[in-house]
Write the structure tokens for this entry.
Amino acid sequence: MIRNFINGEYREGRTGRTFDDTNPVDGSLIDNVSEAAREDVDDAVRAAREALSGPWGSLKLAQRCDLLYAVAAEIDRRAEDFIAAEIADTGKPRSLASHLDIPRGAANFRVFADVVRNVPTESFASHAPDGKPALNYASRRPKGVVAVVCPWNLPLLLMTWKVGPALACGNTVVVKPSEETPATAALLGEVMNAVGIPKGVYNVVHGFGPDSAGEFLTTHPGIDAITFTGETRTGAAIIRASAAGIKPVSMELGGKNAAVVFDDADLDVTIAGLARSVFENTGQVCLGTERVYVQRSVFDAVVQKLADAAARLKPGHANDPDANFGPLISAEHQKKVLDYYALAKTDGAKVITGGGIPELSSSMKGGSWIEPTIWTGLAHGSRVASEEIFGPCCVVIPFDTEKEALHMANDTPYGLAASVYTRDIDRAHRFAGALKVGVVWVNTWFLRDLRTAFGGSGASGIGREGGVHSLEFYTELSNICIKLNGEAQ
Ligand code: NAD
């Protein structure tokens, strides 16, 4: 059984209930998960609060960072355990988990330990009205107990993206992993104990959203901040819940990201980027592309080459070395994506490839499989071209002018990410700067430097994390002003 991790110990939840953790490759049961009760969340928050004033709070910065480097090293050492847990929960290809999810899980501790060690302190010298000098400097202290609520698409990666900087800044955390992917968050508790992270610093409560661990945690009066990654609608519910206690929130929400391909683009580079951004992780990446705008003279070539790339995707078990395409996370999500596939047809889309469930071997029959899908013939503004589907699919739409492409790319309530393919350096800068999103890639996709700002605008979120930007959220800043009254002796 996967249990809650509270105050350094694995505990069964006081609901007495469990829920199933299933493998989306074939629908088989991986394990039962013990659901936390409100009292368990109370215990987790209390443990986190006590750890702040206990041994964790009294560590020197360098000691805290050394512990985080040790966490990273222990994740590396136990990489096989983390990969096994992640691929069982998500069905994603082993190659993806071993190259992306798990190494990034470790990097999130290393990078943010480096960031907090190297951040300078803001300081201003000024004068008082009597002419005496004054010195202002900024002082940062941890926010306190941070609630971390996570999605299922990149479970360890996105959870540690919050836990790493939160701990680096001296906070303690209570994590609510997605009910679909509880395993790696639970495993991280073993790592914390193994390297000597004091008890209560890292806590995990399992359950669902409303009327369960997610709501109990985000409405808890004992937390000091909430950091959330997930759907825009859920983010709105959490913001409402946070209002009563005036809790600071960081929101990394949904997207409907555009890629824009100009006729001077290197098509091999373009297709390599597009194929990843549309199909990687079976399209379940918040930064993924679901709208592709292509300049008319290269439209047919891009559609054909992207369809060729889709044809090279091979669904299969995560450990099958020939497989490079996993299932969707759940039958429920598969139904949502299939509903959009049906809607595309109703709206008159031309289905270039895919559009349904692939032929499956008998060992994959109970899984949540879906075909990679490309549509043309849909209007910009149609529901399929406007709403986040979160599947391996895209609408390809032609354009004639840069102005038209910019209008369509920006014509969305979302503002998370975009990619631009062109060899014209002037256009690259001009166009990238005019896109109303938090992250732009030019001639690539998902190339991340963790020191850079990350986040979305509009319906894609509030705030930026990454590098020093994470410090803005995970610390409370005070300005200290000292008047120097003395005279030189
Ligand atoms: P989700 O919003 O359904 O769930 C996320 C988490 O919130 C889960 O742990 C869930 O149990 C919890 N939750 C649900 N309702 C809650 C409530 N009322 N109160 C407290 N907690 C609640 O999202 P998901 O389906 O797990 O993830 C997919 C979504 O995440 C997509 O929309 C995707 O774009 C988004 N996402 C965004 C980013 C980003 O960085 N912007 C990254 C990854 C995923």
